[in-house]
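hey so i finally got around to running the thing on that chain from the lab meeting. sorry it took forever, my laptop kept dying and i had to restart like 3 times. anyway pasting the input first so we r on the same page abt which one it is
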Amino acid sequence: MITITIDEETEAGKTFLEIAKMLALKYKGIKIDEENSYNREFVKKIEESYDDYKSGKSKSITVDTK
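ok and heres what got predicted. didnt touch it at all, straight out
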């Protein structure tokens, strides 16, 4: 199985998805799952937090679980 990520907001992404849908109708073995399991805003927030951590704007702590 191969996973391809397509940005549907770009012209190339729209074209690629359209072609893939046509191929999926014609040939067996091609399945298009359009479900997006990632919330873009959440991912952006996590990436910004990580960037803040890398640049020293936040701190990490170690918790002793004993």
